[in-house]
Amino acid sequence: MASATILITDLEGSNQIKKMQAHISSPSCFLSSTSTDDNVADFPHHEQNPQLSVTAVLNHCKSKILTPYLRLLSVVGLRPLLANQLEPCFCFRFVNYIYTIQLVFLLIVGYLLQYMACFRRDRGFCFKIANNPYLYQTQIKEIYEKICHAPVVFSFIIPSALHLVAYVHAVVVIRHSEDDQLPVLMERVFLTSTNISNGRGSQRKLVRTLWTFVGLTVIWMTVSFVAVMFMMGSGTINFKWLDDAPVAIQTGLKVLLVTCTLWHDVVQATIISNYCLQTQLLTTYLQFLQEKLLQHPVQPLDWIRHIETFKKMLRYVNIEVAPSVCMFTFINIACATSGILWLFNYDDVDKETVPIVGISTLNVVLWVLLALAPFIQASRLSNECDVLRSAGQEVRTRPFVHQDTPRHDLDSILLYTASLKLRAKLFCMPVTGRYLCLFFVFVGVGVLVLGQCHYFNTS
């Protein structure tokens, strides 16, 4: 702490700034230096020099996005609920362990209740219109009765097992990784932005973008919760093995089912949003590094070291973070596809059930959106990696910024960037915008052909 304070108070020379940036790259230094320095003004007050205080930049990063989001991850169980930065505490570890077990238990209870109530995430509760002459005499048009044709293995066991494994994998990776990547990555992005023009504006834009992802995640969870409530209120819900249970028990099970289902959505939406945030930070980090290269004379070796750090973080996302996201995405694609086929009455067995007007379609749309989000973010990151390959050639054509840089240094940057082959990967496959466009073209052609062949009867 003493060394961090000395470096913070003396930032006049460029060598000291470099030492400060290198020292602050570790999470422990970040947590200790930014939490106790109350003498540094808030970031927006540094109007004259964007490099005036590295600590102010990190305070801005921590207060605006990092701390609130890490608390959200702690609530979901992806990070310890209680943490002591100075010395590990057995009590804290015990509380975190018990809390995680409770969250896993809540997931398992939700899987069991969904099976007992025959609640499918692709269709919701399966209802049919009641065939009762008395209803027509009382001019009641649509009253739904529950019916269940769901195959146990494919509708409940496999999706539940994948969902649980994906959550456990995400917890293990994020909690027990040697490098706490999200805070480190966020620090690096904010520090790199101080070396480009309009750094403060870029940082504010980045904060708004990250909060947009969090806001969209909350909206998705809220709409999904509302859809589940509408499904439950549209017909009579009975639980397997508890048909003759008292009304109070039935009501309690319904409340618990809604709570567990909401928790399922919170878990997977948070993990997918964490992936989207990290890919967005990597995309922005790469953009800032390119702007730094094009706007200021830089040492080739220093810039290449930054790119190597980016490669390490990208590898972490592709190898460690992506598998859990892929498992959730696999479930979401299956739910979306099954729901679409059911909406168009292509289920060979389930012919009696009918969709709830508006709600069933909304449920399918939610799964489609959640399944597409990781692919869109991965393709954006891959496209930015493609742009990086042309940065070396652009540097060679700039007559003013790098006019004093030796030619062999520029050639080194050109050769290095031209040799880069970086991609964001999902399901161990590189994801690019071209592949996504090609996929949507095939889907559009398939829908058009099926419609022309009278498979979609809209009349």
Can you walk me through this structure?
With 459 residues, this protein is mainly alpha-helical. It has 2 domains: 1-60, no CATH class; 105-431, no CATH class. Helix content is 70%, strand content 3%. It contains 15 helices and 6 strands. The protein has helices spanning 2-9, 14-24, 27-36, 54-76, 90-117, 133-137, 152-176, 181-193, 199-233, 247-295, 300-343, 359-389, 391-396, 407-418, 433-452, and strands at 119-120, 124-125, 127-129, 144-146, 425-426, 429-430. The strands form 3 sheets. A two-stranded antiparallel ribbon has the order 1-2. Strands 3-4 form a two-stranded antiparallel ribbon. The chain crosses the membrane at residues 94-113, 152-174, 210-232, 321-344, 356-376, 435-457. Keywords: Membrane, Transmembrane, Transmembrane helix.
Major sheet: 2 strands, antiparallel
Structural class of the helices, strands and pairings? mainly alpha
Shape: globular
Low-confidence stretches: 1-52, 133-141
Number of helices: 15
Task: Round the mean pLDDT to the nearest integer and report it.
Answer: 78
The amount of helix comes to 55-70%
Kindly estimate the percentage of residues that lie in beta strands according to DSSP.
Answer: under 5%
Overall number of structural domains: 2
Distance linking N and C termini: 73 Å
Task: Provide the spatial order of strands within the biggest beta sheet.
Answer: 1-2
**Order of H and E elements:** HHHHHEEEHEHHHHHHHHEEH
The Cα radius of gyration reads 27 Å
Overall number of strands: 6
Keywords: Membrane, Transmembrane, Transmembrane helix
Transmembrane segments: 94-113, 152-174, 210-232, 321-344, 356-376, 435-457
